[in-house]
Amino acid sequence: MLEHTSLRDLFRILLPLLCFFHQMPGAENYIQIDPSSLVVRFGSPASANCSTNVTHNNMGWEASQGSIDKTFNVTLITWSVEQLDKWDIKPLCFINGEEQDMKSLTVTVYKPLDQVTLSTENHTMTEGSQYNLICEVLNVAPVYLLTVSWYKGGMLIKQENFSHENETKNPVNKTVTLQISPNRTDDGVQYSCEAELKLGPEGPQPPPKMKSDFLNITVHYGPEFSNCPGVVDLKEGTSLTGICDVTGNPFPHSTWKKDGSTIDPANPLKRTSAGMYEIIVRNIQKSLTVNVIYGPELSCGHSYTVREGNEFNPNCSVVGYPSYNMSWDKNGAVDFPLRMQKGDAGQYTLIVSNNVNFILHAVEINVLYQPSSISELHSANVSIGEDVVLKCASKGKPRPRYKWIYHHASNVQITDQDGVSLLHIKHAGGANIGTYLCIAYNDLGKQRQEVRVHVEGAEQECPLSLSSHHVLVEYGETVNVKCLSSVSNATLKWRFRDTEVNNDTLVIDSALDYLDWNLNATCYGHFVGLGGCSKDLNITIYKHPEKVSISIKNHSGPMIEGNSYTLQCDVQNTGPLELLTVNWNKVKGQTGNEDFIKPRILANESTTLTISPSRNDTSYSCSAELRLGEKNSHIIRSNPLYIEVHYKPTIWKNIPLVVPVFYGYSEKLYCNASGNPKPTITWFYKNKQTSGENLTVNEQGVYTCVADNSVGNDTKVISVVIEEDYLPLIAGFVALVVVIISVFFVSIYTIYYKNTKMGHYTVEGAKPKAQNGDVAQNGKNTTIPMKKIPNDSAILFLDARCELVLSPPELLVEYGASASVDCSTATPSTHFSMGWKVPQGVVHVMKDVQLITWKVETLMHWDIQPICFLNPLSTQCFVKLPVTVYKLPDRVSISIVGHEGPMIEGKQYELQCDVYNFAPVHLLTVNWYKGQHLVAKTSFSDSTKTPVNQSTRFHMSLNRDDDGVRYWCEAELKLSRTRAGAQTPFEVASQVLGLTVHYSPQVSSGVEIFNETTEDIVLNCTVTANPPPRYTWNSTNLGKEFNIGHPVLVLSSLSSGNYTCTASNGIGSVSKLFIVQAKPRGGNRTTFWAIVGPFVGLAVVMIVGYVLVKKRTIKK
């Protein structure tokens, strides 16, 4: 601790002492000369200051020029000369104090160079000799500050100074020598020397210097050979220039020879130029062997394609000199030939090398291989209406292409992407059931895999149809039946009578060698994806009867009513008999028919009918018909067989059994009877006998009428009763009662009129009752103003800062047409960008816009919903554009379901309307028209948007008024349902289907009575029917058919009687009875007036009473 304290104290003592001694003045410190040294050009002015900061007696300058004597009381004194003319001057500043102190001023006096020259003994030099270059610097001082620099071209090669000659300060001439030994490279080189006075920083800047002129030297050498080995390798196309160059100065001339011939070494060398050359220069000869390097000339492609499994050796070759080696590399050395596999594909490097060159050549080897086994393809079992996607994937090179083999349907679409094929089934149905074969193939091979799609709830379709499922072939004719398929280019064949016909048309020749009238044929088709399916055809060969005749078996002459007789119908040469029906007919309708089950050969056939004829039977006929359907219906009728039926008389039942006769009058009794032969009428009364149908009687008694013919007789007893005639008395009584009632009525009327003033009423003071204010004014109590909302734009408000407007708000466009919609916003400052999101017609996002348009030239999407979006400051908002894409139907057809030929009144039928290839379904309405009247509409709710075929049916029950009516259907796309504007619906109509309706005859009244007094009576039995009816007449007077085929019967006699008209066709028959009662003119009118008279009298009394009352009323 003590030791440390002593050291600190010692330091404190020594520090002030050191500072004191540092500040003590010395001779070199208290005399200052400024500047301390001078560089002055000879003859120029010069000056310097000498100062001190110590006390002195005097001070001054001692110099060979410009001395200053002692000067007192100054601290600064200046040495100065106007022209310095001393070469060696050293001014001295002195101070006289206790001692004299002094300090000298260094002065350098210089003179710039007058001239610098460079010379040599000989400008033409020989390589390898020594030569001196002389540089003379004239009149320069001081020489010890001189520096001489030697330059070869622009390069400094040597510097010399003369600092050792510092004693010489007067101007001198200085000679400097540079010894050189030039070589050929120095030929034409320029030498120079430069003299410079290095006067330091106090001297002028830049320092004085001078350069001599350039000295050009010429160096002679040679001749010499350079680059001339005994053997030289040169590239093809180059020359011998630069090989075995002969150099020298002056330049020597050389001659090249090859095989004794002079050549130009500048000519390009060819590969054939290799050999021995001679070079001759000034009788100097040199030999040279030249090898020509060429190549490598590589013959090798950049890409090769090889099939997998094939042995491959790249056909690569190389020529050149020196000889080359070839090797292959791909992640290591590869030796060819090589049996290629798919893993061997890639890039190979061909290495071509020799001792002078090295080449790399890239070769791409593609290994082609057939498609691999198909993956990711599986069978599918789905429900009806579901969507199905079948995926077929395979790897191969080149990339496999895909082919699907299946039963084509409109709801199947195939897309290929990224080496995979996808088969889409939309809304699977019966048409999609079957197998689906995917084939992946390329040029090297193919792979196939088959799967099956089963749709539950649907039945597999067979795409076969026949022009007719049942063919009728008339014996001796030829008929063609075509087998049709909805699949294009389908291979169809027929199997008929154990023979296959490889054609879609079956020719049926109804030759005699057919063993059967009923034949079957089958159309077969094998369809991709479905397998085989068939349709059966029923064939019936027929022959209409050649003749039909009718006869009575074992009888001739008239028939007796009630007896049995046998009729025989003979049908000649017809078949097949199992389709034969024999109808028995008589005038008033069918009496029976018979079907046959016989051997199927052409035959004659007979059938009998047992009849018990009635009195109205006039004729029988039979007809033969083959049951071939209405279209081929052909009835062969026999000639009518007229019969005469005898029957016993029958007296009419409407003859009264009791006939009253007024006393004093006579009455005629009628006894009408029918019978064949015509009966004779005989009256019996009181053993009296009178003939005739009418008998006039005036006596009471019993009268017997007997009708008699050859078959029998009938008797009727009529009682005649005599009565008094009270009719006049009754008539008088009635007239009296009428008079009494009239008088009573007039009296009552008069009394009532007086008491009640009948007919005088007043409405004075009457006020109409106000309408109840609560009445609803027929539903129009108030008128509510309604504001119509425009429908030409759609606005979607998502938030306060997001407003989008579409124009138009909805789009209705035909498939394949152009479409354009504007999307705008009213708030451009609050969003970053806006755009459209669409699968077709891409619109890029745009910034700082208020309107953006989506537009497509050809719309190719059925189900598309563009979205306009807006990116505001907060969150994204959007609006969807409803788009309806439609396609008009290709055609529309109407047909009758399951029926051909005329229709029958009262039966039910179906019409079918087919609409082909249209979209969308939900806009379709099928309108059914009867004539020009709309009778039904059918709409659809199916959401399918792609084109489909659609069918709908209409049920109808026909009557006779529908005969000739035309039906048609119309497909209407209700495009006006959308809000895209007032669109007119598109309509496509079918062809017109005319109906033929067969109906039976019909009459409005079954009985018509004629009470005629004239002589001409017209009975009109005309009825409407289709086909037109056949008319027959029957009469009780004639007892047989007459006037056949005529609907009108004109009677020219006054014969009373019943006349029956029958109208019949193939549908039915109807009869009408005409009752004709002819009466003579005149007769007793007593009864008539007895009844009518009282009513006439009553009418007269009432008229008189009314006139009297009216007059009385007027007077009042």
From TrEMBL:
Q: What does the entry give for GO biological process? A: cell adhesion
> PROSITE patterns, per this entry?
IG_LIKE (PS50835)
Instruction: Write the signal peptide boundaries.
Output: 1-26
- Alphabetically list the UniProt keywords: Membrane, Signal, Transmembrane, Transmembrane helix
Molecular function (GO) terms for this protein are:
integrin binding
Q: Write out the transmembrane intervals.
A: 726-752, 1088-1109
The keyword Signal belongs to this UniProt entry's keyword annotation: yes
Residues annotated as domain Ig-like: 112-196, 223-300, 371-454, 545-625, 649-719, 889-989, 1001-1077
Q: Which Pfam families match?
A: I-set, Ig_2, Ig_3
Q: Which InterPro entries match?
A: ICAM_VCAM (IPR047012), Ig-like_dom (IPR007110), Ig-like_dom_sf (IPR036179), Ig-like_fold (IPR013783), Ig_I-set (IPR013098), Ig_sub (IPR003599), Ig_sub2 (IPR003598)
Q: What is this protein called?
A: Ig-like domain-containing protein
Species of provenance: Tachysurus vachellii
